[in-house]
Amino acid sequence: MQLRDFGRTGLRVTPLGLGLAALGRPGYLNLGHGQDFQAGRTPDDLRARTFEVLDAAWAGGIRFLDAARSYGQAEVFLGAWLRERRVPAQAAVLESKWGYTYTAGWQVQAEQHEVKQHSLATLERQWPETEQALGRLPDAYLIHSATLESGVLQDRLVLERLARLRAGGLRVGLSLSGPGQAETLRRALELRVEGEPLFQVVQATWNLLEPSAGAALSEAHEAGWGVVIKEALANGRLTARGPQLPAALAEACRELDSTPDALALAAALQQPFVHTVLSGAASVEQLASNLRAVGLARLPGGLETLAEPPAHYWQTRAGLPWT
């Protein structure tokens, strides 16, 4: 994969990246996640699986790697892999996120898997934890699932701390979630520190079922931000594991002789505002199928008809079980 500019951040990224949300902890809300780990879900099992997928991603040309404090041991696994594989700091772009704390205690059926807290105390605690786990500074550090409701974009102390991190050379940004992604992003675009934009990176959900943030993401792209797409497969709904593959997607797969996951990722990759799209693969086989997206240069029409009302999409996502 050829490297491309990551907006005006000074970084260069590959079109496809790897997110570790489904690898760093034993439970996740992707459809069929439980069956991916029937051989074992101990920390050692998941560490070995994470290494396998990272090795395959590296061999496939992926050079953008995403984690978060709340992804169980994802940062620890990633840091260990970087050290054991002797990956030079300049060879891969690392992104991580703060604002959620993992609370499941390595249990799949936990009452609560993570707790959201966008406070200065959380930032001050999690920032050094991320650096220690990775063994190096991340290239981009994001507020995890910022929303207007959380109040983080109005928290002067948090914003001042992020500004100091940016002044020290770190690219700071935010990830988005929920039906208000566009409104949250537009508020973030307005924030300035000494006349300069505070944020430089955004990670947002965009997929064929939920494309509503597209216009706001285009504005971020025009402003020079790095734009990362997550959940391009709608947590498995746009894969062969989905309960009912949309007819337009099934027809496009037949026309292009493609798997639905590759086609859905390709649809995200071909949006003009996108710099990199995350694969959330939990196995080498899933990653191999995802990588086919890079070679899909032409997509048939009609896929835009798959879009759902944002409120309906996010309500459905909230009802997905952790397995």
From TrEMBL:
Gene3D superfamilies: NADP-dependent oxidoreductase domain
Coiled coil: none
Domain NADP-dependent oxidoreductase residues, every copy: 40-294
InterPro entries: AKR2_Oxidoreductase (IPR053135), NAD(P)_OxRdtase_dom_sf (IPR036812), NADP_OxRdtase_dom (IPR023210)
Superkingdom of origin organism: Bacteria
Protein name: Aldo/keto reductase
